[in-house]
Amino acid sequence: MDAQDQKRLKTLLLKRRREIFDRLHRFESDWEALSERDIEMEEEAQKADLTGIFDQLDEMEQNEIEAIDRALTKMASAGYGTCEKCLRRISLRRLETLPASRFCKSCTQKEEQRTRL
Ligand SMILES: [Zn+2]
Question: How far does residue 100's CA lie from ligand 1's centre (Å)?
Fold first, then answer.
C-alpha cells in the first residue's frame, strides 16, 4: 500500500469516527438540557459520566469506534493493512469498503464459519 492510499483510508476512518462522535455529543447536549430543566436530576447527573454516554451508543457503534482506533494505531506503527491472523496483506479493495477491518477476507470467512458451527 502506498502512502497515498493509506492517507485516503485514514481520512475515511477519521470521518467515520467523527460522525459517530457527533452523535455522541448530541446525546451529551440533550442530556445537559434535560438536567438544567430539572434540578432534582442534578444528583443523578453527577453520577453519570462520559462512560454512561458512551453506553448510549449501540454496541455496533462502540465496536466500530474501537476498530477505527485500532486501525489508526496500526497506521501509526506501519502495521496497517496486514491481516492480524495470517499476516498477509488485506486487499486495498476490501480496505476501501471496510477501512477498519483487522482480517483479510478469507480469515474473516473462516472465522464466520467457525462461529456458526
Ligand atoms: Zn488473513
Answer: 14
CA of 104 to the centre of ligand 1 (A): 4
Q: How far is the CA of 8 from the centre of ligand 1 (A)?
A: 22
**Short-list 83, 56, 65, CA closest to 20:** 65
What pLDDT, on a 0 to 100 scale, did the predictor assign at position 62? 84
What is the CA(110)–ligand 1 centre distance, in A? Answer: 9
CA of 111 to the centre of ligand 1 (A): 10
Radius of gyration of the chain (CA): 19
pLDDT tens digits for 61-106? 888 899 999 999 999 998 999 999 999 999 999 999 999 999 999 9
What pLDDT, in 10s, does the model give residues 11-33? Answer: 999 999 999 888 877 766 776 66
Ligand 1 center from residue 12 Cα (angstroms): 22
DSSP string, 38-63: -GGGHHHHHH--HHHHHHHS-HHHHH
Q: Cell 494505531 identifies what position?
A: 73
